[in-house]
């Protein structure tokens, strides 16, 4: 299967969460979500500050226009509240493969099932609709919570890129790379569906 490029904006709908194409209209909801737990204030992440949200939305939409990213806003189904952002990026139609990342969620959404369902929606679209052979995920070594969450998905750790990125505070960070291959997807999907049955 050949991946259609550029990737077209699409809404992915689950029971707990809906992933809608990112829009400037989501600005105020995203600012409110980012202030929920001050998730932007964790030094090892690249989560934008509240005052930088407009620029971050613009940046992601510019990358989308160039075919380099497909950004989503995460919206909780129960109350239509914006709870975060996520994206497809590092898109390579020749393999085809892509990565899921630049993800953050409001603190009150943590542990509610919305993040694993978001990953299920994204992975289903990547493997079943876009024909990906591989989906990558990455995080920073110091972000233990994120590393553990990715491992719980069933992704395999590929390796660590030492001093891969300089944070906005000047610190050098090590990136941890994970991936899920097409033949592993049925097992990953079954695991996610099992986890989510206890949430709905």
Automatic annotation (TrEMBL):
One of its GO terms (molecular function) is acyltransferase activity, transferring groups other than amino-acyl groups. Residues 17-179 form the N-acetyltransferase domain. It holds the Pfam family Acetyltransf_3. It comes from the Bacteria. Keywords: Transferase. PROSITE patterns: GNAT. InterPro entries: Acyl_CoA_acyltransferase, GNAT_dom. PANTHER family: BLL6696 PROTEIN, N-ACETYLTRANSFERASE DOMAIN-CONTAINING PROTEIN. This is GNAT family N-acetyltransferase. The lineage of its organism: Bacteria, Bacillati, Actinomycetota, Actinomycetes, Micrococcales.
